[in-house]
Amino acid sequence: MRNLKLIVCFITLFYINLLQGINFKTLADSAFIHYKNGNYNQSIELYKTIEDSGYTSAYMYYNMGNAYFRLNQIARAILYYERALLLNPNDADIQHNLKYVNTFVSDKINELPVPFYIIWYKDFTQIFSANTWAWFSIVLFLVILILIYINFLTTSAFISKLIKFITTVLFILWIVSISATYSSYHRLTSHNYAIIIDDTVEIKSSPDDNSTSLFVLHEGTKVYIKETFEDWAEIKIADGNTGWIKIKSIERI
């Protein structure tokens, strides 16, 4: 009887998830139709319904970015292009649109030079998604275990040496894939970067409205969040300058 209840619960949950998937596909199709017809606000509302339910995709964020750009909401367009790029960092269309819409940002900030090996490592880890890197590391680990088992069975010294060499190479690749998995997952889930959504904001020297104003930033500027305190966030911009901003003036990517 208990097993029967478990089976019924499992089947019920399965069909609920299936119906939700169908419902979200219907919403996504409707949102895209609204976008094609120039009903950008309606399109965004439907996409936000999907987003609020926890279903996201690079394609959806890309379309939201396009819709916000059509409405001349530059900061929101940048925000959703950035979110799309997180999920699909190698998409040429997302990269192109993000680069283009950033030309409308008022703040032209000179970025600090980044060491070549950091750029190389970042580009390398973005070759695949976090899920792909995770599967790659799992497959490598299984192959290593199989090779170790074969090495125990073989009586040939040559084959044993060959297996040990291949295992060593695969082990190094496994370590690299584990590192790439962690890096990709951390980039996807940390949400340490944000976009300024207010037209103009004063960056303060401390989390206090009466503190000294250090500089001014405008909508669409990308910032790094170092830490938060109550309703304030300490940010860092591309040129290395830091300061405090009201959390309500930014939205995390």
Can you describe this structure?
- With 253 residues, this protein is an alpha+beta fold.
- The chain has three domains: 2-104, Tetratricopeptide repeat domain (Serine Threonine Protein Phosphatase 5, Tetratricopeptide repeat, Alpha Horseshoe), CATH 1.25.40; 116-189; 193-252, SH3 Domains (SH3 type barrels).
- The chain is built from eight helices and seven strands.
- The chain has helices spanning 2-36, 40-52, 58-70, 74-87, 92-101, 116-125, 130-153, 157-189, and strands at 193-196, 200-204, 213-218, 222-229, 232-236, 242-246, 250-252.
- The strands form two sheets. The chain has a five-stranded antiparallel beta sheet with strand order 6-5-4-1-7. It has a two-stranded antiparallel sheet with strand order 2-3.
- β5 (232-236) and β6 (242-246) form a beta hairpin.
- α1 runs antiparallel to α2 (40-52) and α4 runs antiparallel to α5 (92-101).
- It is globular, with a radius of gyration of 24 Å.
- It starts with a helix and ends with a strand.
- The relative contact order is 0.09.
Question: Topology of this protein?
Answer:
Blueprint: H1 2-36, H2 40-52, H3 58-70, H4 74-87, H5 92-101, H6 116-125, H7 130-153, H8 157-189, E1 193-196, E2 200-204, E3 213-218, E4 222-229, E5 232-236, E6 242-246, E7 250-252
Antiparallel strand pairs: 1-4, 1-7, 2-3, 4-5, 5-6
Helix pairs in contact: 1-2, 2-3, 3-4, 4-5, 7-8
Give Rg in angstroms: 24 Å
What's the count of strands? Answer: 7
Global outline: globular
For the biggest sheet, the summary is: 5 strands, antiparallel
CATH architectural name of the largest domain: Alpha Horseshoe
Strand residue percentage: 5-15%
Relevant CATH superfamily of the largest domain: Tetratricopeptide repeat domain
Order of helices and strands: HHHHHHHHEEEEEEE
Poorly predicted tracts of residues: 1-22
Number of helices in the DSSP assignment: 8
Instruction: Indicate the mean pLDDT.
Output: 88
Our measurement of the CA-to-CA distance between the termini, rounded to an integer number of angstroms, reads 48 Å
